[in-house]
Amino acid sequence: MEKKLKIADIAMRTGLSSSTVSRVLAGKANTSYRAREKVLACARELGVMDGMASGRMLLNNLVIFAPQRAFDERADIFYFRVIQSISKALSHYEVRLRYCALDEFDST
User: Fold this and answer.
1) Residue of 8, 89, 15 whose CA lies nearest to 25
2) 57-80, pLDDT tens digit by residue?
3) d(CA 94, CA 97)
4) Could you give the 3-state DSSP secondary structure of residue 99?
5) Residue 26, phi-psi category: left (phi > 0), alpha (psi -120 to 50), beta (remainder)
C-alpha cells in the first residue's frame, strides 16, 4: 500500500467515522483513548505513520526555546521555576512539552 494518509481506509478498518480518524491524526484532544489506540495502530500497520513525526502529530506540542542555563536549577532558578510551572500547567492537557536550549552570545 502507498504510504499516503487515507482517512477513509483507516475509518473503514477501525469501524470509526472519518471525522474521528481525522481528529485522532490531527492530535485533537476530543477523542477517546480507545479510538486513538485503534486509529494509531491501524495507521502504523498501513505505514502511514512513517514521517508523520514532523507533521500532523506535532500539533499538540509546545517547544520552549531558552538559554541552556534556564533548564538548570542551579544556573538560573527563576527561569527554571517558570519552566516547571509551565510544565505543571500543561500536565492537565494532552500537550507534550519539549525543550530546546539556545546558545547565548553576550549575555552580560
Assistant:
1) 8
2) 545 778 889 899 999 999 999 999
3) 10
4) strand
5) alpha
Name residues whose C-beta falls within 8 Å of residue 90's C-beta, 6 or more positions apart in sequence. Answer: 62, 97
With the C-alpha atoms ordered 9, 14, 18, 19, is the resulting torsion angle positive or negative? negative
pLDDT at 54: 44
Residue type, 43: A
Q: Phi then psi for 88, rounded to 5 degrees?
A: -65, -45
pLDDT of 1: 44
DSSP class of residue 101 equals E
Q: Who wins on pLDDT, 38 or 50?
A: 38
Q: Which three cell numbers, joined as nine digits, stand for 51?
A: 514521517
Q: What is the DSSP string of 27-96?
A: T-SSS-HHHHHHHHHHHHHHTTTTTGGGTGGGTTEEEEEEEGGGG-TTT-HHHHHHHHHHHHHHTTTT-E
